[in-house]
Design a protein that fits this description.
Elements (H helix, E strand, L loop, with lengths): L9 H19 L11 H6 L1 H7 L5 H11 L2 H4 L8 H13 L4 H20 L27 H11 L13 H11 L3 H5 L1
Helix pairs in contact: 8-9
């Protein structure tokens, strides 16, 4: 019980409720927490986080990345105690190791998704990733669209009923047409 009106005003009641909502979500979701809260590693493995991600076909790739790339120092730290400086240190380490900016930005995006969900769930009071910037991409290759000739050759190739194995890939013309007409990425087409 928070208290009764008017001894506690609406603003104070909302602040108290917000503070305690993380522990309510944790207990309701079966998350193990202590006074400092659930660790990053335990949270990404929890049913509460997994249930949100399983809806996307890319979820397993993201989970593999979070498990293998994010350092144990972050995995073992409660979400509430992780700082933007820790994440920036991780980013600096990846950059010094020679990882491409695009790769590091994917890592940042994956960590960002964890904190976004933790914030929405009330497990953290603020999303620290709002204070972590993605890397600037230098010398990024421009992604070009297919030329009209390439489009025609692709359409002709996927519709060629005389080619070997056509019966096993009869679905391709639909996906190719959707991709060409909408510009959707492969993962978006498959979801």
């Amino acid at each position: 019980k928070i208290g009764e009106y008017p001894s506690i005003n609406l603003k104070t009641a909302k602040a108290i409720a917000s503070k305690h909502s993380g522990s309510i979500v944790s207990k309701a979701s079966g998350l193990f927490t202590n006074d400092k809260g659930i660790t990053f590693g335990d949270y990404i493995e929890s049913d509460a986080y997994q249930a949100v991600g399983r809806k996307r076909s890319s979820h397993q790739v993201i989970m593999d990345n979070l498990r293998s790339v994010v350092p144990q120092s972050i995995h073992n730290t409660p979400l509430k105690l992780i700082t933007p400086e820790q994440v920036n240190s991780f980013i600096d380490g990846r950059t010094r190791a020679g990882k491409l900016s695009q790769t590091v930005n994917k890592n940042i995006t994956n960590i960002r998704s964890v904190f976004k969900q933790a914030f929405v769930s009330g497990l953290v009071e603020s999303n620290i990733m709002d204070r972590v910037r993605s890397l600037d991409i230098k010398d990024a290759k421009e992604k070009l669209a297919l030329t009209p000739d390439e489009r025609q050759r692709l359409i002709k190739a996927v519709n060629d009923k005389t080619s070997t194995g056509y019966h096993q890939r009869m679905h391709l013309p639909i996906y190719v047409a959707l991709g060409l007409d909408t510009g959707l990425r492969t993962t978006e087409l498959l979801e």
